[in-house]
Design brief:
The protein has 319 residues and is of the alpha/beta class. It contains 7 helices and 19 strands. 24% of the residues lie in helices and 29% in strands. Helix 5 links the parallel strand 11 and strand 12.
């Protein structure tokens, strides 16, 4: 449980957005508390966010040799602690933003806050195959972000799972690096816009496996991903498709369910913020990182919005 029952700033989430907000809020002497995730049933629900499941991070400024995801998050956490940030682990069970001070129900009790920064992030959707998590964390070769990891797949054959605009964008981006990109989609028809489909189909490096699903990811320690067993949903035929990587492009789910009815969201559940700020529909509640960003979803953009949220919170409190 938290050390106090009331805070000027409560930060929900300990990924790049939440920890950057903590650094700025602490330096402004707002004495924030960061409520970390963890303790849930999901194996990916860990304090520090999605970067805790990422091995090599090569696109975060200031680390010319790259840095491990967990190491980067540990450095951010220590920096926030250095300026006096308090940390507490727990799940947010409920939020009451229609009264002041704001009231948050945590797994270990209730706290109140003058301002809240929501940095609970978003989860990529996965296939939930038994071996999937190992390939995402310990071995490598399964990713949900072509922008983050495409560089590592130069001259390799890769698979992209999905049939929407995101899948077409990921495949087109990966074709700049990969030898061949094969889109795997369970239906005959794609959900992507006609323009995106046309662009993808015109790309000579993009191939198609429609009416198909991945049933097993192949590979092992020291190898990474070496292929996938792909089943045709119409014929039942299963074939082994060699590849050096698999990219999931079947969407993301923002962690905002607990705020339903409290904060305005778009149809996908992402929090809506006022243009150019992190202010949500409730004055004093701010959103940072992937919880409000379905476009970029990068550690550096999350950190930037965390800085913005802390500054917005400080200015709100000063008034």
């Amino acid at each position: 449980m938290t050390a106090k029952s009331h805070y000027r700033v409560v930060i929900l989430g300990s990924g790049p957005a939440g920890l950057t907000a903590a650094v700025y809020a602490s330096r402004a002497e707002l004495q924030p508390v960061v409520i970390e995730g963890g303790g849930g049933d999901d194996a990916t629900d860990v304090p520090g966010g999605q970067l805790m499941l990422t091995t090599e991070v090569d696109n975060y400024p200031g680390f010319p040799e790259g840095v491990l995801g967990p190491e980067l998050m540990e450095r951010m956490r220590k920096q926030a602690e250095r300026f006096g940030t308090e940390f507490a682990t727990g799940e947010v069970k409920g939020a009451a933003f229609k009264e002041r001070p704001f009231r948050l129900t945590l797994s270990a009790g209730e706290i109140t806050a003058d301002t809240v920064i929501v940095a609970t992030g978003a989860r990529a959707k996965w296939l939930n195959l038994p071996e999937e998590l190992d390939f995402r964390t310990k071995i490598g070769g399964v990713s949900a972000c072509a922008t983050c990891d495409g560089f590592f797949y130069k001259n390799k054959d890769v698979l992209v799972v999905g049939g929407g605009d995101t899948a077409m964008e990921e495949a087109s981006f990966l074709s700049k690096f990969a030898a061949k990109v094969t889109i795997v989609h369970r239906r005959t028809e794609l959900r992507a816009s006609k323009a995106m489909q046309t662009q993808a189909r015109a790309n000579p490096k993009i191939a198609w496996l429609l009416e198909s699903v991945i049933e097993k990811i192949l590979g092992g320690p020291g190898q990474g991903v070496t292929g996938a067993m792909v089943r045709n949903v119409k014929t039942g035929e299963v074939q082994e498709v060699p590849c050096g990587g698999i990219f999931m492009a079947i969407g993301h789910t923002p962690n905002t369910a607990v705020f339903a009815g409290q904060l305005e969201m778009d149809e996908q559940g992402y929090l809506l913020v006022h243009d150019g700020t992190t202010a949500t529909s409730v004055p004093g509640v701010f959103a940072a990182g992937d919880v409000a960003d379905h476009r970029y979803r990068q550690a550096i953009t999350a950190a930037g919005s965390g800085c913005m949220a802390a500054i917005d919170a400080e200015r709100f409190l000063s008034h």
